[in-house]
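Next comes the chain:
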Amino acid sequence: MILLRVIGILTAIVLALHAGIAFYGDLIRPSFRATDLFLGQIPPDKTKLAASAGLASVSWDGDLLANYAAAIAADVLHRPSTEATSKASDNRAAQGAVVTALKVSPIRPALWLTLGTLQAQAGEAVTPAVKMSYLTGAVPIDVAFSRVRTVTASAAATDEEIKLLAQSDIRSALANRSRYEPLLIAAYVQATPQGKSLLLETTKVTDPKFNEILRRY
């Protein structure tokens, strides 16, 4: 009987701690999401991020980890350090936070793209992360266009599967050409030779007139 009471008390304590941590996590969870990173939203300041850092290190809450990782990544990408060593260290830390979040909750296409964007900034291979971004679900058009820029500016444009998937993103942008035309041109100018080829091949079929415009650059 005593053993059962002890087990019951310990179980109640564990459940109470879990509920308390979950409640606290809801209070301090950053509202910033991975999609916000590609929509031009301003990430939370470092003081607010510090409040959730400790809990994120022990939490298994997928939303908390994903939002924290996205906010950390946005800080690195939008407010990078001017010192090379610090910039590299911050990038590694952000990648670590994103990977941790994806291990707990992997069906997050925008967060996979976040990982690829961080890897691109660090000069690392982006193909696996970008491919997972495509394979784990749909994303808003602005996120899809950011994915086009990542693909066309990296070695991901040489991957046959990604090339097929990226064509859908390009066609979506062309469907709203008045908005995305200057951005597509900018992406073409910054693209690798393989990325330029991907953009030309897709626009040749989808929008021949825009294809002619690209060829002038």
In short: The two ends are 82 Å apart (CA to CA). The CA atoms of residues 59 and 65 lie 7 Å apart. The mean pLDDT is 85.
